[in-house]
Structure formats: C-alpha cells, structure tokens
Predict the structure.
Amino acid sequence: AGIDVGSCQMSKKKGYFITNRIFSDGELEMLVNVIQSADTLSDDMKNNLIEKVAGLGGAHKAKSLMPEPGPEKRKIVLELDLKLFLDVFERFLLIETLSFSEDKVVLATESMVDEKFWDWIVSFDGGAKVISPEDVVVEYRKRLVDA
C-alpha cells in the first residue's frame, strides 16, 4: 500500500500533495519538530512550512502545532575585528556599515536576540562586541563574564 501523490500547476511552479491521507497527531508533531530543527532553513521558511504541515491536521490541530512566537528582530549595532566581517556577512542578509578602520568595522543589522545569537557572538572571544542597544550591551557583558 503506497501513498497517492497528486500534482497541480501553481503559476510557473508545480505543486504536489498527498491525496486521501489523514495524518496522526504524532506524525504531524514529528514533522513540525523536524522543520524546527532544520539549520538550513530561515525562520520565515520554517514558519511557512510549519503552517502548511499544521494545516494538514485541521484548524483545531493547527493551533496546537504552531510554535510560540519567539523574540522579535531588533536593530543591533556591532563592532567587529575586520577579519570577522565575512562571518557576519554570511549570517545576516541586511547589513548597514557604519564605519571602517584599519582593523575594526562597526555595523548595524536586524537580528533576534536569542540563545543562537548569544552563542554566535560569544564564539568570537571578544572579537565581536555589541555596542547598541543598551539592554543588549548589558546582557553581552554578563554573558562574557559567564563564558
């Protein structure tokens, strides 16, 4: 017994769907967990996919499968050793360079200030320094002491 897969044309792209299939709660939860743990997907892509998967269980199940909203993106100003600029450039899509010197760059970007952000900043062993906003600077100093 296989799974029936249907297809449909959606503008220039072809879409696929599973016909006559009811997913169990456990299957839907597993799919959501896989999506949430995928490092190669942006948060927007993850949320989009989770909405689609959650919808497979109906409106009542979709609500319980949707993740709690995380921290909002904030404007963060960083001072970096120039040699770290490429690492930062690869992480953030939008960077506003505020100043360059011989060995430092100051830039502004949008980021969620979550554990992933802190792990990343602290991994540079002082080569990346948060200089704004003030509440994030305070947390940065605390995390450096704790590291």
